[in-house]
Amino acid sequence: MRDLTFENVTVRFGSRRRGTVAVDDVSLVVPAGQVVGLVGESGSGKSTLARAAVGLAPLSAGRIEPAPGHRKIQMVFQDPYSALDPRMSIGESIAEAMPSVDRAEVGRLLELVGLPADRARERPHLFSGGQRQRVALARALAGQPEVIIADEITSALDVSIQGAVLNVVRELQRRMNLTMLFISHNLAVVRYVSDIVAVMREGRIVEYGPVDEVLGAPRHEYTRELLAAVPHPSR
C-alpha cells in the first residue's frame, strides 16, 4: 500500500494561447488504506485528473506518485458495457490482468465481488451492467494494485442496482484495506463510501477534509451549492 499523491498537477489540452486547462495546479493526497471521494459537477476536471494518474492524459506540469501508468494503479471506468472485450470470457478478461494466469484466483476474485466462480467461462453479453462493473472491479484487483481509481462507476447503472455495487466497494475496501480515489458527482454516494472528500471546481480543489466535516459544515460556497442541489425525499 502507498499514498496516491498529486503535486501541483496541471493538464492542458491544446496550445498555451488557445488551449483549455482541465486540471489547474492540483495538489491532493489519497492516504494509504483510505477512500478519498472526489466530487464536482460535470466538466470540473475529475475524470481528467483520474486519467492523468493512469497515463491516459499527459501532464503539462507537476508530478504524480506512483508515476502515471504504473501497473500498481488500476482504474475502473464509468461505462460497464465498453469496459470488457465481448470476444473474451470474463475469466479471460480477469486473467489478462494477472502476472500469471491462475484459474483458482480468477474464481476467488469473482466470489470476492459477489459473482459465482463458475461464471468465469461466460461472455460479457450474459451479464447486467451491475454485474459487468463487478467484473471490472475483479479485473482491477487481479493486477494486485496499490491504488484503485473508480471513475463514476455507478452513474451508468440503474438506481436499483447502484447500492449493491457500492456495498461491494465498501466491503472490498474494508477487507483489503484498499487505497482508493472514488470519483462521483453524487454527494450521497461520496458520503457513503469515502473517508475523505475533495471538492473540485473548474479544475481546482476548493475544499478537502474528513467527509463528515466537509459535508456537515462546508466552508466553501461551492460545496454548499452542491449540497443544496441534492434532492431530499420531503421536497
Draw up the topology in text:
Blueprint: E1 4-13, E2 20-30, E3 35-39, H1 46-53, E4 61-65, E5 73-76, H2 90-96, H3 103-112, H4 129-142, E6 147-151, H5 159-176, E7 180-184, H6 187-193, E8 196-201, E9 204-210, H7 211-216, H8 221-228
Helix pairs in contact: 2-4, 3-4, 4-5
How would you describe the overall organization of this protein?
The protein has 235 residues and is of the alpha/beta class. The protein has a domain at 86-144. It has 8 helices and 9 strands. The chain has a 6-stranded mixed β-sheet with strand order 5-6-7-3-8-9, sandwiched between helices. Strands 2-1-4 form a 3-stranded antiparallel β-sheet, covered by helices on one side. Helix 2 (90-96) packs parallel to helix 4, helix 3 crosses helix 4 and helix 4 (129-142) packs parallel to helix 5 (159-176). The longest helix has 18 residues, at 159-176. The model has no long low-confidence stretch (mean pLDDT 92).
Number of helices: 8
Looking at the chains present, what oligomeric state does this protein adopt? single chain
Instruction: Indicate the mean pLDDT.
Output: 92
How large is the radius of gyration? 18 Å
Given as residue ranges, the uncertain stretches (5+ residues, pLDDT < 50) are: none
Task: Find the structural class using helix and strand composition.
Answer: alpha/beta
